[in-house]
UniProtKB/TrEMBL annotation:
Enzyme Commission code: 2.6.1.19, 2.6.1.22
UniProt enzyme class: transferase
Gene that encodes it: gabT
Pathway: Amino-acid degradation; 4-aminobutanoate degradation
Coiled coil: none
Name of this chain's protein: (S)-3-amino-2-methylpropionate transaminase
Matching InterPro entries: 4NH2But_aminotransferase_bac, Aminotrans_3, Aminotrans_3_PPA_site, Class-III_PLP-dep_AT, PyrdxlP-dep_Trfase, PyrdxlP-dep_Trfase_major, PyrdxlP-dep_Trfase_small
CDD domains, per database record: OAT_like
Species the sequence originates in: Guptibacillus hwajinpoensis
Cofactor (UniProt): pyridoxal 5'-phosphate
Length: 451
C-alpha cells in the first residue's frame, strides 16, 4: 500500500506551535479546531501543514470539498474571474455567472415544475431565506424542524437546531414559532419494534405532534435534512420522508429540504432528496457547491420564490462572481468525473469495512450512511454513547495523519466526508489508520465473544 500520510514532527509541530501562540492571543476561545495545526497547501484529498506533515483528508472541511482541494477546473475558473472583475454587487450591476448557475441548479433540482433560484453566501443564510420565503408565500409564521437537526448558528438557524451544547447554550432567547418534531433514529428504536413498525410509529408521532405542539394551519414550512449531518448522519426511512411530505401537501405546508451537506454527489445523487422520491418545494444548498468559496442558494417553485417583493431578498455579497464561477466548475467536475457513481463506491467500501470490524470491536454499535455520507456510532454496554472513547479514536487517527471529525448529539459518532476524488490508495490507507487507532485505544477492551 502506497504511503500517503506522513507525520514528521510532533503535533503540533514547531511552526504550528508558534502560530497557536499567536492564535491564543487574538482568536476567541469559542472558535474551535479539529486538529492543532495549520494548513500550508492542499490538493485532492491531501493536506500538508506548515511543518511539512501530510494528512489524508476524511473531513473535507466539514463536507465542502466533494471535488477535492484546489481542483484544477475550479482554480482555472477562479483565476479567469479574478482577471475580469471580482465584485459588482448583483443588486447594483448584474453578471452572467449568477444567471448561468441559477439555470443549472434549477435544471438539476428534483421536479419538472418551473423553478427560480436565489443565491447567497453561507448555508445559514440559505436556510434563513428559505424561512423568509416560506412565511411570505404562506402568510404563516410557524416553522417545524426535527430533533437532532442542525441548520446553522445565526439566531434563526440556531433556534432551528436541536443540539444545545455547544450551539445554543447561553445564547437565548431564541426566535419564536420554531418547533421540533420527533425524527426516526433506527439504531435507538425500541427493541421490541421491527423497522417497519418503528417507521409507522414515527409517522404517527409526527401526526400527534401536529395535534399536541403546533396546528398545521399555522405552519409555513417543515425543514428537513434528508440525512441529518451534525446530528449523527442519521438516515430516515424512505416512507417516513414521503409521509411527512404528504402531510405537508395536505395542509398547505411547504416542504424544505436542507441539502447543504447532503448535496452535490455526497450521497451518490446531486440531491439526497432524490433517494427518497420526494420533490421539495424549496431546497437549500451550499458547502460543496463552491469547493471552498462562499456560495449558497435557495432553489424553489417559481410561484413560491416570487412571493417576496423587490428588495426583500438579497445581500451585499450574495451570489458573488467568484462563488458562481467556482460552483459552475464544480458542476462540470461532478458530471465529467462521475462523482455520483464514485460516491456510491466509496460508501460501499466504508460500510463493508466497518461492518466487518464491528465483529472485532464491540464498541462499534452502528454503521450507517447513504452514498459517501457515512458514520459509525461508538457505544458501551447497552448502547450507552461513549464520547470519551470516540475522542480517543479521533485523536489517535489524527496523530497518524488522518483528518477526521466527530458528530452526533451525544458526541459519539465518527463521520466520513472525504473528497470524492480520493484515490483508492488514500481511501484504503485512511481506513487502515482508523482501524489501527481503534486497536491502540481499545487495547484493554475485550473483543466480542471473548470472556
Amino acid at each position: 500500500m502506497t504511503k500517503n500520510a506522513s507525520i514528521q514532527t510532533s503535533l503540533p509541530g514547531p511552526v504550528a506551535s508558534q502560530l497557536l501562540e499567536r492564535r491564543e492571543n487574538i482568536v476567541p476561545n469559542a472558535v474551535t479546531c479539529g486538529i492543532s495545526t495549520f494548513a500550508k497547501e492542499a490538493t485532492g484529498a491531501r493536506v500538508i501543514d506548515v511543518d511539512g506533515n501530510t494528512f489524508i483528508d476524511f473531513a473535507g472541511a466539514i463536507g465542502t470539498i466533494n471535488v477535492g482541494h484546489c481542483h484544477p477546473r475550479v482554480k482555472e475558473a477562479l483565476h479567469d474571474q479574478v482577471d475580469k472583475y471580482i465584485h459588482t454587487g448583483f443588486n447594483v450591476m448584474m453578471y452572467e455567472p449568477y444567471i448561468e448557475l441559477a439555470e443549472k441548479l434549477a435544471a438539476l433540482a428534483p421536479g419538472n415544475h418551473p423553478k427560480k433560484v436565489l443565491l447567497q453566501n453561507s448555508g445559514a443564510e440559505a436556510v434563513e431565506n428559505a424561512v423568509k420565503i416560506a412565511r411570505k408565500y404562506t402568510g404563516r409564521q410557524a416553522v417545524v424542524t426535527f430533533q437532532n437537526a442542525f441548520h446553522g448558528r445565526t439566531l434563526m438557524t440556531m433556534s432551528m437546531t436541536s443540539k444545545v451544547k455547544p450551539y445554543k447554550y447561553g445564547f437565548g432567547p431564541f426566535a419564536p414559532e420554531v418547533y421540533k418534531a420527533p425524527f426516526p433514529y433506527a439504531y435507538r428504536k425500541p427493541e421490541q419494534m421491527n423497522e417497519g413498525e418503528y417507521t409507522d410509529f414515527m409517522i404517527q408521532q409526527f401526526n400527534d405532534f401536529l395535534l399536541k405542539e403546533v396546528a398545521p394551519e399555522t405552519i409555513a414550512a417543515v425543514v428537513m435534512e434528508p440525512v441529518q449531518g451534525e446530528g449523527g448522519f442519521i438516515v430516515p426511512d424512505k416512507s417516513f420522508v414521503q409521509a411527512v411530505k404528504s402531510i405537508c401537501e395536505q395542509h398547505g405546508i411547504l416542504f424544505v429540504a436542507d441539502e447543504i451537506q447532503t448535496g452535490f454527489a455526497r450521497t451518490g445523487r446531486y440531491f439526497a432528496s432524490e433517494h427518497f422520491d420526494v420533490v421539495p418545494d424549496l431546497i437549500t444548498v451550499s458547502k460543496s457547491l463552491g469547493a471552498g468559496t462562499p456560495i449558497s442558494g435557495v432553489i424553489g417553485r417559481r410561484e413560491v420564490m416570487d412571493a417576496a417583493d423587490q428588495g426583500e431578498l438579497g445581500g451585499t455579497y450574495s451570489g458573488s462572481p467568484l462563488g458562481c464561477r467556482a460552483a459552475l466548475a464544480v458542476l462540470d467536475v461532478i458530471e465529467e468525473e462521475g462523482l455520483n457513481q464514485r460516491a456510491l463506491q466509496i460508501g460501499e467500501k466504508i460500510r463493508e469495512r466497518f461492518t466487518y470490524l464491528a465483529k472485532e470491536f464491540s464498541f462499534i454499535g452502528d454503521v450507517r450512511g447513504l452514498g459517501a455520507m457515512n458514520a459509525i456510532e461508538i457505544v458501551g454496554e447497552g448502547k450507552v454513547p461513549d464520547k470519551d472513547l470516540t475522542k480517543k479514536i479521533l485523536v489517535e487517527a489524527q496523530q497518524k495523519g488522518l483528518l477526521l471529525l466527530g458528530a452526533g448529539v451525544y458526541g459519539n459518532v465518527i463521520r466520513f466526508l472525504m473528497p470524492l476524488v480520493i484515490t483508492n490508495d488514500e481511501l484504503e490507507e485512511g481506513l487502515f489508520i482508523i482501524e489501527e487507532a481503534m486497536r491502540k485505544v481499545s487495547a484493554n477492551l475485550l473483543p466480542k465473544g471473548v470472556l
